[in-house]
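Entries read sequence, tokenised fold; example below:

***
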Amino acid sequence: MAAAPAEEKTEFDVVVTDAGANKIAVIKAVREIKTDLGLVEAKNLVEKAPATILEGAKKEDAEAAKVKLEAAGAKVELK
């Protein structure tokens, strides 16, 4: 009897595990992704890494956020 295939995840959390050397670029990327955050809130999120940037995001949105954050120099995980 074959095991049932695992359900594909449809919701992802985007977590910054390390801001890297260019924190300013990462903060700007966080503010582009989460437009409701002010500069201080975005800075605090980035500095307390690991920090969840998006929760329950669709796969496409999570992947786009990951690409944007990695381009800014952050290390990112999708959970």
Summary: The two ends are 30 Å apart (CA to CA). Strands lie at 11-18, 51-58, 75-78. The mean pLDDT is 91. The domain at 21-78 is CATH 3.30.1390.10 (Ribosomal Protein L30; Chain: A,).
